[in-house]
Amino acid sequence: MTPLAVSLDVFGSLDFWIGVGLLAATYGIFTLGLQLNVGFTGVINFGQAGFMAIGAYTMAILVVEAEISFWLALGASILVAMAAGLIIGLPSLRLRADYFAIVTIAFAEIIRYTAVNARELTGGSQGIGGFDGAFLDLSDLMLEGLDSFGLGDQFLLPLLIVAVAVFGLLTVGMYFLQRSPWGRVLRAIREDEDAARALGKNAFAYKLQSISIAAALGAVAGWFLALNLAFISPTQFDPLFTFLGFAVLILGGLANYFGVILGAIILWTLLEGLRLMDLPLDASQTAALRYVLVGLVLIGLMAFRPQGMLGKRQEMVLGD
Amino acid sequence: MEVEAAEAGAVEKERGRLAGLSSGASLSPPVVAGLIVASIAVALIVTQGLQPFGQTTVNGLISASYFALGAVGLTLVYGTLKLVNFAHGDLLTLGAYVAFVANVSLGLPILLAVLCSVAVVAAFGVATERVMWRPMRAKGAGLLQLLIMTLGLAFVIRYSIQLFAGTQPRSLEVDVTSSTSFVGLTIGQTQLIVVLAGFAVLLAVGAALRFTSLGKQMRALSDNFELAEVAGINTDRVVLATWIFAAGLAGLAGVLYTSAIGNMTPNLGFFLLLSLFAAVILGGIGNAYGALAGGVLLGLTQEWSTLLVDARWKLAVGFLVLILVLVVRPQGLFGRQERAL
Prior knowledge:
The complex is a heterodimer. By secondary structure, chain A is an all-alpha fold. Helices cover 74% and strands 1% of the residues of chain A.
């Protein structure tokens, strides 16, 4: 066989697709929040990785340090992330869109520095593990069931099933939320905030709700990131990951929730495929190549097809 | 404990600022800011002692030199083209690595390497203007489109450098070990050169913006593009000059940073970017003098904060200042009200 055929073999393996599926579902949920903010509200949220970190760390700290039940910790982490969304949104949502973008990325960096530096709580750069016992019990149950299909040895398959189910439900949920009167007001604010205000809508409150819902979605993505690796550390929440979310968002198309699914699958198939191919590069070079590609995709889309695959051009109204 | 101290310090400072702003409504904001900085300095000398204060001030001036030089380009590009350039930090990285190639791989003397990196980064800035930004402006691209494009460019620069140079830290051939002591304050030999060179360039930049025709035209464009065009300024030429100026200074700032810190990695620019934004916003976005002053203020704030909280929090302190300034006075110290919204 030629080297290329060998390297293309990875696309035939189940492991590969489970890995891609998990990342696509995690970043898909993450990007649903960005879609709500950027695509439907016209608020440029560059701090989504910060909300993801808050979700994952709150869950892990509550389980490991406070010994609270895993399932309760999940709920608590959503509340904490939403509160963080309110705290960051309250003072800064009145700012112009580009200033808001800078504030949110600064917020995400502060969260990451806190994760690195507040060692007693977060384990510093060593990270936290051992929070997933309750999930592993569920996972074992599911694996017993999967065994009858001959899939009992795919340890990540239960997590994939849960992640995909949650991603699907949330996507459909967000879709219907957007079709509600509430969703239409958001869109009106995106199109013309003054007009929405003139109709008696409190644009600020709607934007605040949009941010805190996005924060909740970021927190949910944080759980799956944490469960996937069974471990969290600050490097997993680099602001870089917010921009991977933007790549998913733009690829799929602005103002279309189903575009997020498409974007997430395409981006992660590409990125993971590149990682596993036999390129004559070392690990850091392969990682670098992946991100060069992400950058080129972002530039190319913005230059030639800013509406992405499923978006509509007339929805790219931001900043006009 | 440390967190509490950090918060207490920040709150204290903010109270000071607020009090200063409300009581000094008739004073100009830069004067008020100067008074606040001076009173913080006095408070720190009294509570922490003169020597630690002096040492952190010296350290602050070192970072001030590259913050200010990086920030002035970022702010001019924003002012002139309304482009919030998230790739600006990576121009600093590019500058550092060009200097590395010239200085270490090709064995050129460091001074020549600095010139190389200023020239290459300036040329790169002009190239991005011609290939990306001008065509996008002609298409009438929106804010979000441009913002994401600068992000894409940031990825391409940062990771292309990583692809070729790897992630291991690299150093220029500068003396990073010997240091000078003066009245009980210590500064590295190279750091001393960085501060002197940095501030010399800063003064030169300030003078060039103030007194040369091109400098005045740049500020005019940054202030009001249409009005400048109507007044007969050749905007195309000034835009190119702005890119040469902004990117060249970014390249220089990258080399200064690397020399002062002792090494470079491909993510140094992205790491510095938020500090540059903080400096820009502190001084009022689009205002060149503001960025110079904002860079100096930010450098001092970060280093002075190490007297009150652990040094590992100093970057977070910088970002906190950024958020506080945006919330309290979004137009910055030197900006005008109309820029706020």
